[in-house]
């Protein structure tokens, strides 16, 4: 499920936009609404929000400088599509010198324009290479998610198995699967695999392209099999 963030300091605007998205695209998006730019900033910095597909950003936020905040959002979520919300075109003229939004919607919001804009940015996002983000020593690091073959949970840490390296980070495997559910399949309490690296599903294990065998729990076998058949990940 794709993650959508709405940041507008008017509660009515957040509520209206959330409702419209839910009606136009039922059960397609996980929505997060913020009426405080500072709250969104702190949740990103604290690791509560790790990924985003679409970000609706109002040009009426007063707690921070709009340009600086938009640039911060773009840096933190390079794969996200940013759609500006504005009262008039003059509000966003200065923004185009610093950051290029993926979409622009003028208030009051129009259902048809919203639907057209979201579909457009989703089609554009489909052509981008998805990145995986981690934070090491206070620095955000990005690399293609396709470099990850599987993830293993060990206590409070996750081992990210890439082609030529293993990276350890703090986190929960459930959170990773929620954020990257279109890529990873949870096959075991302690394992999630990149579905694009799977070559075979057996009764108790998954075999990856590199020959690694990942356990599949009895409780999750049917779920894994259905997910792979639905996405034609194996035959």
UniProtKB/TrEMBL annotation:
**Family matches, as InterPro entries:** CheY-like_superfamily (IPR011006), LytR-like (IPR046947), LytTR_DNA-bd_dom (IPR007492), Sig_transdc_resp-reg_receiver (IPR001789)
Annotated GO MF terms? DNA binding; phosphorelay response regulator activity
Segments traversing the membrane: none
Report keywords, A-Z. Activator, Cytoplasm, Two-component regulatory system
Domain HTH LytTR-type span(s) in chain numbering: 132-230
Ranges where the Response regulatory domain occurs = 3-122
Q: Which Gene3D superfamilies match?
A: 3.40.50.2300, LytTr DNA-binding domain (2.40.50.1020)
Q: What does this protein do?
A: May play the central regulatory role in sporulation. It may be an element of the effector pathway responsible for the activation of sporulation genes in response to nutritional stress. Spo0A may act in concert with spo0H (a sigma factor) to control the expression of some genes that are critical to the sporulation process. Required for high-level post-exponential phase expression of a series of secreted proteins.
The name on file for this protein is Stage 0 sporulation protein A homolog
Q: Organism classification, top ranks?
A: Bacteria, Bacillati, Bacillota, Clostridia, Lachnospirales
């Amino acid at each position: 499920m794709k993650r959508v963030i709405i940041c507008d300091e008017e509660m009515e605007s957040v509520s209206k936009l959330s409702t419209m998205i839910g009606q136009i695209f039922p059960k397609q998006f996980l929505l997060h609404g913020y009426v405080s730019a500072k709250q969104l900033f702190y949740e990103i910095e604290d690791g509560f929000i790790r990924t985003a597909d679409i970000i609706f950003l109002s040009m009426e936020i007063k707690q921070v400088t709009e340009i600086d905040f938009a640039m911060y959002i773009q840096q933190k979520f390079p794969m996200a599509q940013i759609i500006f919300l504005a009262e008039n075109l003059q509000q966003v003229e200065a923004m185009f010198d610093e950051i290029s939004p993926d979409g622009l919607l003028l208030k009051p919001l129009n259902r048809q324009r919203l639907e057209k804009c979201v579909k457009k940015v989703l089609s554009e996002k489909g052509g981008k290479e998805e990145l995986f983000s981690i934070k090491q020593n206070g620095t955000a690091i990005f690399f293609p998610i396709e470099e990850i073959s599987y993830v293993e949970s060990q206590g409070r840490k996750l081992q990210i198995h890439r082609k030529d390296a293993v990276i350890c980070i703090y986190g929960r495997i459930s959170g990773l699967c929620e954020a990257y559910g279109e890529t990873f399949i949870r096959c075991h309490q302690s394992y999630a695999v990149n579905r694009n690296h799977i070559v075979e599903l057996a009764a108790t294990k998954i075999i990856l392209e590199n020959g690694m065998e990942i356990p599949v729990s009895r409780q999750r076998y049917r779920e894994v099999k259905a997910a792979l058949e639905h996405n034609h990940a194996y035959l």
